[in-house]
Amino acid sequence: MSVLEQTLAAIRPADRQAMADARAHQDRLTKPRGALGVLEEVAVRLAGVASACPPPLPTPAALAIFAADHGVHAQGVTPWPQEVTTQMVANFLAGGAVANAFAAQVGTSVTVVDVGVAADLPQAAGLVSRKIAYGTADMSLGPAMTVPQAVAAVEAGISVARDLVAAGAACLISGDMGIANTTASAALICAFTGKDAAETTGRGTGADDATLSRKIEIVRRALQVNGVPGTRVDEAGGSVAGAVRTLAAVGGLEHAAIAGFILGAAAARVPVILDGVIAGSAALAAAALAPDAIDYCVAGHRSAEPGHAIALGHLGLRALVDLELRLGEGTGALLAYPLVSAAVRVMHDVATFDSAGVTDKDV
Amino acid sequence: MSVLEQTLAAIRPADRQAMADARAHQDRLTKPRGALGVLEEVAVRLAGVASACPPPLPTPAALAIFAADHGVHAQGVTPWPQEVTTQMVANFLAGGAVANAFAAQVGTSVTVVDVGVAADLPQAAGLVSRKIAYGTADMSLGPAMTVPQAVAAVEAGISVARDLVAAGAACLISGDMGIANTTASAALICAFTGKDAAETTGRGTGADDATLSRKIEIVRRALQVNGVPGTRVDEAGGSVAGAVRTLAAVGGLEHAAIAGFILGAAAARVPVILDGVIAGSAALAAAALAPDAIDYCVAGHRSAEPGHAIALGHLGLRALVDLELRLGEGTGALLAYPLVSAAVRVMHDVATFDSAGVTDKDV
User: Fold this and answer.
1) In chain B, which residues fall in CATH 3.40.50.10210?
2) CATH architecture label of B61-340
3) Is B31 a residue whose pLDDT tops 50?
4) Nearest CA-CA distance, residue A8 and chain B, Å
5) Which residues in chain A have Cβ-Cβ distances shorter than 8 Å to B96?
6) Sign of CA dihedral A90, B52, B57, B330
7) pLDDT band at residue A239 using 50, 70 and 90 as cut-offs
8) How large is the average pLDDT for residues B21-33?
9) pLDDT at B236 over 80
């Protein structure tokens, strides 16, 4: 079996008994029932992931930033030059980006993974080279990747997840860098949810009105040129081959790698906090490959990109942070990490009505 | 001059020049302009608070939980017995409450301040006794407090803020405990914004439909009995005496103390992260006493209580965390603390386009 096949075979749904135990435990804690709102469900989810109540604290956590370039950049879908991908990789490795500041603040490691940057990168501490191509091909003219390239990118993500867990990570955090990658995200969200490009396509990191119109047109063309509406995973009954074909047709190398990162987390029974629209679209691909993998995901934040809310709705995930971020890099997921930790910490530290001698209104 | 008068005289608006410098600095950092959304404004606000760009990291932070009881409890506005206030104070001091778990997670100290619990509390480490009364009087029958009691409670909050800052706190976090205290919050929000009780009153920590109807009726009666619509601060031109009279009429001792805590933070030029609807209603009182004090506030979270959004709108504050929490204790503000820290950290750690050699699309 291939690494992808082995991984898919290893993924099980979250443990429903541990989740039920976690819900019952929440109700005994010295707080009104349900008073921690969305965080109670986060703790329940992590109990299901770990098959344990209370679940272990998600510490330490590891951020992986998957970096790649995009052939569709040539169509003028973003005001940023393509070389910014390479420059930002250098910035991550030097510790100068927002993701580094947030990672330092919340105490997570940072690993940068080159799955397809359009330049040769010098070796550096913290950089993992899994380059599959010097960027994708232009999806508005044909498939962005070959199917073997897409599988290789997914498997790169799986192996990064495995390696980080083997090194001790109890929680994975997804990040991305790739100028033009919100264009591929919009196309993937159309492909996996059936929405029109006008609904899924946003301004990314700063497209003006003219660029946004062009971007929507390019997303439509990419879907049409690649016949993607005809291979929609929903319609194809969720076949693995169909999902990989869609990913190859209109995805990015980092999207494919993040899909693999999610699958790798699920196979290792470790939670993964998703960043914004890049991770959200990659999670749609992961869900098409293995629906149970989504049990292992926590939506870190809701991006300002309109397609992200559509993707989260489709996945049944609710974002923890909603602060109009539109940066990527894993920044939104890093901000969510202390919230996830706090949700789990409650399950360990908080007294019960009985143990604390507090009167319970419901007993 | 009284402590209150001295404090009001010491409050200055946030430093507009430092805020402009912070905005300009944000635009030089290696990220698209505005890409950190709401967090950019948090960093700008903290620059204004500290009169420095970048502002100092808000570390260490100190949580103060102001605890008190409410005479209006006798009207059946909550399903929880009044003794739960005392029991939860013991739980905080034993480290067993959710606020303790969150404080441990984000690394802040916890101080519990008795400003009006309806029982004698044994001395304990972490407990500050500033008891003004054994709970308020029933506001549905007359004023909850005398004016001197309200002033004493405000001054208790001021002195707690001063003491925590003197002990090294660079950021204050507001918390509360008081069975029935969302009833007083709803009344204060009506008084300071002119809204009807039906809009400001919610289920607190678990009122059923019948209790909610009674609670709305009691809030209306309290406002009427005390003639509060006639002394509305908005209408009274924001006089200090008017604000104190309103606080005394329909507030709680912890509401008055938290208003003082905000004033104390502003006078010390230290940021204060507000928790939910109790702090939001107290902040309306603080704003009536000293409008510039709100420059020093960060809204930690948006509570599920409907009056809270009204209060935040009136104050011009946007909450950072929105997870349907309805617990109080400072829990929502504690969750926001790492977000505030991250926002400031960006100003210290992140490279500029020039320093990192990253191409800026806008230059």
Assistant:
1) 61-340
2) 3-Layer(aba) Sandwich (3.40)
3) yes
4) 33
5) 30, 349-351, 355-356
6) negative
7) confident
8) 96
9) no
Residue indicated by tokens 């990658």: A181
* Single-letter amino acid, residue A228: V
For the residues of A60-121, what is the DSSP string, one character each? SEEEEEEEE--GGGGG---SS-THHHHHHHHHHHHT-SHHHHHHHHHT-EEEEEEEE-SS--
pLDDT at A229: 63
Chain B CB contacts of A88 below 8 Å: 30, 358
Nearest CA in chain B to A323: B38
Alpha carbon distance A288, A233 (integer Å): 7
- In whole angstroms, what is the distance from residue A279 CA to residue A294 CA? 12
- Residue B115 is predicted with a pLDDT of 98
SS3 track for chain B: CCHHHHHHHHCCCCCHHHHHHHHHHHHHECCCCCCCCHHHHHHHHHHHHHCCCCCCCCCCEEEEEEEECCHHHHHCCCCCCCHHHHHHHHHHHHCCCHHHHHHHHHCCEEEEEEEECCCCCCCCCCEEECCCCCCCCCCCCCCCCCHHHHHHHHHHHHHHHHHHHHCCCCEEEEEEECCCHHHHHHHHHHHHHCCCHHHHCCCCCCCCHHHHHHHHHHHHHHHHHCCHHHHCCCCCCCCHHHHHHHHHHHCCHHHHHHHHHHHHHHHCCCCEEECCHHHHHHHHHHHHHCHHHHHHEEECECCCCHHHHHHHHHHCCCCCECCCCCCCCCHHHHHHHHHHHHHHHHHHHCCEHHHHCCCCCCC
Within 8 A of B355 by CB-CB distance, chain A residues are 96
Domain A3-54+348-356 sits in CATH at 1.10.1610.10
Measure the CA–CA gap between A64 and A257, rounded to whole angstroms.
10
Tokens representing A308?
């992200």
pLDDT in tens, A146-184: 999 999 999 999 999 999 999 999 999 999 999 999 999
CB–CB of A240/A133 below 8 Å? no
**How far is it, in rounded angstroms, from Cα B146 to Cα B308?**
26
Mean pLDDT of A328-349: 98
| Residue B81 neighbours by CB under 8 Å, 6+ apart | A359, A361, B179
pLDDT at A363: 65
Alpha helices in chain A (DSSP H): 3-10, 16-28, 38-50, 83-94, 98-106, 147-166, 181-193, 197-200, 209-225, 240-250, 253-267, 277-289, 306-315, 331-349, 353-356
B72-82: average pLDDT = 96
CB atoms within 10 A of CB A128: 17
Tokens representing residue A244 in the block: 């990989």
Query: What's the pLDDT score for residue B230?
Result: 47
Kindly give, in sequence order, each residue whose CB lies less than 8 Å from that of residue A75, ignoring residues fewer than 6 positions away. A138, A140, A214, A218
Kindly report, as residue ranges, where domains of CATH 1.10.1610.10 are found in chain A: 3-54+348-356
| Closest by Cα among B140, B120, B130 to B70 | B140
Active site includes B199?
A: no
Beta bridge partners of A113: A66, A128
Which residue from B32, B36, B98 is facing A36, i.e. has the nearest CB?
B98
pLDDT digits 0-9 by tens, A129-141: 999 999 999 999 9
Flag if B98 and A348 touch (Cβ within 8 Å). no
Q: Are strands A171-177 and A272-274 parallel, antiparallel or unpaired?
A: parallel
Yes or no, beta carbons of B334 and A342 under 8 Å apart: yes
Determine the distance in angstroms separating the CA of B318 from the nearest CA of chain A, rounded to an integer.
10
What confidence category does residue A361 fall into, taking pLDDT thresholds of 50, 70 and 90?
confident
Dump pLDDT digits (tens) for A22-54: 999 999 999 999 999 999 999 999 999 999 999
Let me know: does B201 contact B212? Beta carbons within 8 Å: yes
- Please tell me the total number of residues recorded for chain A in this structure: 363
